Amino acid sequence: MVENENKLIVHHIGARSGTRGFPSLCAFENDIVNVLYDADVDCIEQIKNNAQKTNSTSLVYPYCISDKNKTVKFNFNYDPYTNSIYPFNDEYKNHYLFYSDHDYPLCQTIKTMETRQLNTNYLDDILCDKKINIPHPDFLSMDVQGAEYDILKGAKKTLNDSILGILLEAELHPIYKDQKIFGDIVKLLSEYGFMFIRFEDIQEMSSYRAPIGLRGKGIQFSSDALFLKKPDFIQSRDSLSIENKNLLLTKLAFISIAFNQVEHAIDCLEKRSSQASSQKSEQSKNTFDDFINKFELAVESMPPYYPKTFNEKYTYQQSKDRFSSKPINIEEEIEPIPQILLDSSPTPVEEILLEYELSECADLLKNIRLNQSKKIIQNQTKKQPEYIKQLLRWHQLKAKGFGIEEFFADKNINSLSLYGAGEVGQILIQDLKQKIDIKYILDCDKNIIGKSLFGVDVIDRSSKQHLGDAVIVTVLYSDDEIIRKYLLKEGITIPVYTMREILASLWDIRKKVDNNDLR
Q1: Is the Cβ–Cβ distance between 470 and 495 less than 8 Å?
Q2: Beta-bridge mates of residue 35
Q3: What confidence score (pLDDT) does residue 9 get?
Q4: Which of 177, 355, 390, 435 could form a disulfide with 476 if both were Cys (CB 3.0 to 4.6 A apart)?
Q5: What is the 3-state secondary structure (H, E, C) of 140-202?
Q6: β-strands 71-77, 112-122: how paired?
Q7: DSSP class of 103
Q8: Cα–Cα distances in angstroms (integers) from residue 30 to residues 344, 356, 437, in the given order
Q9: Which residues, given as ranges, of the chain have pLDDT below 70?
Q10: Residue 418 pairs with which residues in a beta bridge?
Q11: How many CB atoms lie within 10 A of CB 258?
Q12: pLDDT at site 515
């Protein structure tokens, strides 16, 4: 088994003031072990004191970490946050940034005030030392002023075997002389199954110091860079047992959610399931395991609704015609968006995130969900003005007292089924259930088939149940006739009415009544 499976092990190198790169997560701190390193022995006591203020366990070590065991000249600079084994690159002596309430010239802050000879260690060697017995990291973060690449070189075995996520300060410019920069780090980490995810906090500087009022955009020079291991890389490792693969994928899913990378997390959980679903623990071993199990169940409860892909939206000819004077005629079959994706209330997934105080991630999912659904609806209504027309017509009929049941009054229809469990179908059920016997709701969404809506069972649209005296197609799009033909082709022998024809019939009746009232 992978060691410390019941804890999430977080290593942070360059831990001055007791910081770490992994987010602070109140609900999970009891299940986190921090391993904190700093080369400056003078700040170790402060790190220990600050680490005691959290609910997580912390181990603190005065180690200078590099690519091998050696002796180096360590530069103690004017701002201790810039201390480094690398000297300042004088090419950036005129660069500065505005920090908090003051200017921060690099030539001042990275100015070396003293040097000391320090012995370095490398991570792979430290973790093999049974006398120290440091737990292997699931997550590694660094704030080491140009030494990131060296540290990674000294952790190749650990990168391969245990580390699942990395957050490091990556320079886009060589602020320190002879240091490796972001591109070098990306290349190295890709060899161990990591992919660059995103920049978390981009810092800007300027090469010329102008007075306030004459300052524009700066030069992007560094950022915290997030890397996550690819789920496929873990899944493909034949040397790992199924149990170990599942454990690593579970931890990687949790780390991904901590950084709002929800899709990456779901990919991990699907890979875990494909390994052996029977391996999922029935009893949670810790808070993050409990959370992941609930999160996975909530994901499975969501409707599998996807926007159209590019080649579903455009034929090859239509794709080419976008760049010609020829008008594009696109006839799309529109699939109604499930109501749960349109509601402002939290989805089951968002509820789980909120339960575990992951409100930032919950808000992000909600905002993206509502924004993308809104854009899809706007495009649908733009292409389908008939939909809006029918909704308005229905509203006006109800305001005048013309209910849908009026349509069936002289047709000897006492029972019926509905096609479509969307918003229109739901309103119809509530309108009609006290007046007409509603047998079933027909639908093609496997996520809701077998369930009930307002007491009415949802069945597959090809089921051969007794559907009553008629079927109503509840969609208001132009493809309602296509659906009617499909149902008749499936062998339905009772009348099939579309909402459009029902509303049109009632509209005619209403106009006749209005004309009689005017006489």
Answers
A1: yes
A2: 11, 59
A3: 97
A4: 390
A5: EEECCCCCHHHHHHCCHHHHHHCCCEEEEEEECCCCECCCCCHHHHHHHHHCCCEEEEEEEEE
A6: antiparallel
A7: E
A8: 33, 13, 55
A9: 1-4, 273-284, 327-335, 380-389, 391, 477-479, 513-519
A10: 441, 472
A11: 21
A12: 64
CA atoms within 13 A on the CB side of 464: 2
The pair of structure tokens assigned to 406 is: 């009026």
The token pair at 398 is: 């109800």
DSSP conformation letters of 294-358: HHHHHHHHS----PPPHHHH--HHHHHHTTSSSPP---PPPPPPPGGGT-SSPPHHHHHHHHTT-
Which among 220, 215, 219 is positioned nearest to 202, based on CA atoms?
A: 220
Which 3 state secondary structure label does DSSP give 246? helix
259-286 burial string, b = 16+ CB within 10 Å, else e?
Answer: bbbbebbbbbbebbeebeeeebeeeeeb
The H or E element containing residue 66 is strand 64-66
> Residue 519: what pLDDT?
42
What pTM, to 2 d.p., does this model score?
A: 0.75
What kind and span of H or E run contains 36?
A: strand 32-37
Bridge partners, 76 (sequence order): 114
